[in-house]
Write a structure and sequence with these properties.
heterodimer; A: Ubiquitin-like (UB roll); Alpha-Beta Plaits; four-stranded antiparallel β-sheet; 7 helices; globular; B: alpha/beta; Rossmann fold; de novo design (two linked rop proteins); five-stranded mixed β-sheet; 19 helices
Chain lengths: 330, 447
């Protein structure tokens, strides 16, 4: 076990835990700790091996290496790929330096992003939107033309928009680890690099649809849901069915009695809880196919939570608390 | 006349062949190490010599070797990094082209010390003809029983292979090199684990520069203590310097570390002074990625002491007034050089060579290049200098591998020391309108 202090909060975690996992455990176990203590991630995905380390949004500063070697680490480190040591001290949101570095990363991620949120199906549940809102500048300093790519058709179910891609490598890891055949990879290098696939072998694997769920931006979207509705006009419901290929536990996104879209259920950190198969995702678009359990949990900070009441009593309590806080501040 | 240990025989005709090389004392270190020393003795000699990595970072080689994990039953590998792609550096090419056996001799001796049965020489794609020379030398060594089973009748067996890369700068980074060697895309790995624990094929691996490995031969021949006497302070031994730019005698020179920079530039033995008797403007002392220094700071440090060609002296004053020895790519600029245009060339290079894994380097290098292009073309904005400064600051230290730093440092140092020149470009675009590549704005302005 290792004791690690993150932004002044101490937690004991098993050896081999990364700083990021430790921060998430900290937030999970202590409701009073600000959820922002857990660094944001764009490329790390706890369910995909070897993911993380690329986007650099999760950088933190290690002010004390360990009990044995208290020297601070000279550079900011990617918390998703750095293991904790006993006695380590980490600063995240309490360090202006870290916030500055993160601001830089967000700016870099956005300079070549098309910012076509008004026509992007991911808008409303896009991690880059959240990140930009939290850490981005109000106005871009980049006044050159943004990079574009030739469109690649990757089959009837999934739409690839390379211009929106931020090179998180998550879809490559899914193709590598979840589906049996790897049809995805990276072409070219530097800012011309792109995710691509062998076109003639368009993704026809049963679990290929999961690349949509792991994509933090709108680079990979569901073609069966394309331009049907903004996500915040749909109601996410936890539902299940008997599926021979996967667990069948999904979230269905409904408008009235229509099922517009099926996705995996997401946890607090925006990660899929269970991988789902393409049958459940693309073919079962009838409410009769599903046993609906309850409204899915949506963070109150998300735009999707508007008019989405999971627990009215709790909501009233929360609002009451917030109003008290505001009054106290005044 | 400084001491020469690596390229003292470079003018001997036929030195590339095994027979001539052996006539001039070649493979003595292999005989000495394999027949009279244990692997640990060799390692101790290298430690005593104080040899530091010649690829750029200057990490003590003996220490790197002693970090190598030695689990039972697991193969260990030695990989020679001959992917010399740093602009301004061409010493390894010279060494391999002229005396290929020096490298192979070093590979055998070093592998003996590390207990590596197999070693690889990873040569950059553009050096395909060098690869042929090295391969021919390896064939000769096999035929003479210097490679293969039971070398020189001892128990030690060793195989050495040449692998030609695809020609990417990033593959000079040791983990990217290992990926490329394994046949994958040359993307740097995230450390830890370090190659000393899990390198090529997941086995413990030591990656060393060509010159470092070649320097092991004189160390074994003369003894580590004797080698440590050469040089100055913690910068021991000799170093190959690739001198280029506006000098009378560009080329590869072997110097004793501790030689004054002024002597290196102006003495007839080395660079022979600035071309056409012009004045020195700036020097990039260790390959394009180290900070550029103006004449007054490269000849003397900020305390007024003369600067020496050594790891410590060149980096004195930190990045504010110092630079690094790096890989020894010594580029000299005379007073007619435009630092801004030179920087644009560097920025274009790093943009082209960024692998695209981590966002700051992937996006930032391209952005810096575009801004510099605009400035060079005479469309720069007054805010561009601060913007460049801000971008480089956000790339530096925030990437997986050192390419981000390598792209940021030249920009930072050029702005730090030559800000006036950037302002000139931006405020008076009319003066640079028909400027030839190598003329600076200052000269046209009569400044």
């Amino acid at each position: 076990m290792a004791k690690v202090t993150i932004d002044g909060h101490m937690i004991e975690v098993p050896d081999g835990t990364t700083i990021l996992q430790a921060a998430r455990m900290l937030v999970d176990k202590n409701p009073e700790v600000d959820a922002k203590v857990a660094p944001p991630t764009m490329c790390y995905y706890s369910k995909l091996k070897t993911s993380g380390g690329y986007c650099r949004t999760c950088v933190v500063k290690v002010t004390k290496g360990s009990e044995k070697d208290p020297r601070p680490m000279p550079k900011p480190v990617a918390s998703c790929r750095t293991n904790v040591m006993d006695g380590m001290e980490v600063v995240n949101i309490t360090s202006p330096e870290v916030l500055e570095a993160r601001k830089g990363v967000v700016e870099f991620l956005l300079i070549n992003h098309p910012l076509d949120c008004p026509i992007c199906d991911q808008a409303g549940e896009c991690h880059l939107q959240d990140l930009g809102y939290e850490h981005g500048l109000a106005k871009t300093r980049y006044d050159f033309s943004r990079r574009t790519f030739n469109l690649i058709d990757i089959g009837p179910y999934i739409k690839l928009h390379m211009t929106r891609c931020i090179m998180c490598f998550r879809c490559i890891k899914v193709a590598d680890q979840i589906t049996n055949n790897r049809f995805q990879g990276m072409l070219f290098r530097g800012d011309a690099s792109e995710i691509s696939t062998y076109i003639e072998k368009a993704i026809d694997n049963d679990f290929s649809g999961n690349v949509i769920d792991v994509c933090p931006v709108g680079a990979l979207t569901d073609r069966t849901f394309r331009f049907k509705s903004r996500v915040w006009f749909t109601k996410p419901m936890d539902a299940h069915r008997n599926c021979t290929k996967c667990s069948g536990k999904v979230a269905i996104w409904m408008k009235g009695n229509e099922v517009l879209r099926v996705t995996a259920r997401k946890d607090q950190w925006g990660e899929a809880i269970d991988w789902i198969c393409n049958d459940c995702r693309f073919e079962k678009k009838d409410a009769k196919d599903w046993v609906i359990e309850k409204p899915s949990h949506i963070s109150r900070h998300s735009v999707i939570s508007q008019n989405h009441y999971e627990n009215l009593a709790q909501l009233k309590l929360d609002i009451g608390k917030q109003q008290k806080q505001i009054a106290a501040k005044k | 006349m400084g001491k020469k240990l690596l390229i003292h025989n470079d003018k001997v005709p036929g030195i590339a062949t095994l027979d001539v090389y052996r006539q001039h004392g070649g493979y003595a270190s292999v005989e000495k190490a394999l027949k009279t020393m244990t692997p640990n003795d060799v390692l101790e000699e290298v430690k005593k010599s104080g040899l530091r990595g010649r690829g750029g970072a200057g990490f003590p080689t003996g220490m790197k070797w002693s970090f190598l994990a030695r689990p039972e039953g697991v193969e260990r590998y030695l990989v020679c990094n001959a992917d010399e792609s740093e602009p301004g550096t061409f010493k390894d090419r010279y060494l391999m082209e002229v005396i290929p056996h020096a490298l192979i001799e070093g590979m055998i001796t070093s592998s003996y010390a590390l207990g590596a049965k197999t070693s690889y020489i990873y040569i950059r794609g553009e050096y395909f003809y060098v690869a042929r020379i090295v391969e021919k030398a390896i064939d000769e060594a096999y035929a003479a029983g210097l490679l293969g089973k039971n070398i020189l009748g001892t128990d030690f067996s060793h195989d050495c292979y040449v692998q030609v890369g695809g020609g990417a700068y990033i593959c000079g980074e040791e983990t990217a090199l290992l990926e490329s060697l394994e046949g994958k895309r040359g993307n740097p790995r995230i450390k830890p684990p370090f190659p000393a624990v899990a390198g090529v094929w997941g086995c413990p691996t030591v990656v060393n520069n060509v010159e470092t490995i070649a320097a092991v031969c004189p160390i074994i021949n003369m003894g580590g203590d004797e080698y440590a006497k050469i040089g100055i302070g913690r910068s021991t031994g000799t170093k190959l310097i690739s001198a280029s730019g506006h000098i009378n005698k560009p080329g590869v020179y072997e110097i004793e570390l501790g030689l004054p920079v002024e002597e290196f530039i102006y003495s007839e033995e080395y660079c022979g002074g600035i071309i056409n008797g012009r004045k020195l403007k700036a020097v990039v002392a260790g390959g394009s990625s180290v900070p550029i220094l103006p004449a007054e700071l490269i000849l003397k440090n900020d305390k007024g002491e003369p600067r020496l060609m050594s790891y410590e002296s060149l980096s004195e004053g930190g990045f504010a007034t110092g630079t690094m020895l790096g890989s020894g790519g010594f580029i000299v600029y005379d007073e007619t050089t435009s630092i801004v245009k030179n920087l644009y060339t560097f920025a274009r290079f790093y943009h082209h060579e960024s692998c695209g894994q981590c966002s700051p380097c992937r996006e930032g290098t391209g952005w810096m290049e575009k801004i510099l292009h605009r400035i060079v073309e005479g469309h720069g904005k007054p805010s561009d200098i601060d913007l460049l400064w801000d971008i480089q600051r956000k790339i530096e230290g925030n990437t997986i591998c050192p390419l981000g730093d390598a792209a940021a440092w030249p920009v930072a140092s050029a702005i730090r020391h030559f800000r006036a020149e950037f302002e000139e470009y931006i405020n008076h675009p009319e003066r640079i309108k028909d400027v030839k590549h190598y003329y600076s704005v200052h000269q046209l302005a009569g400044a």
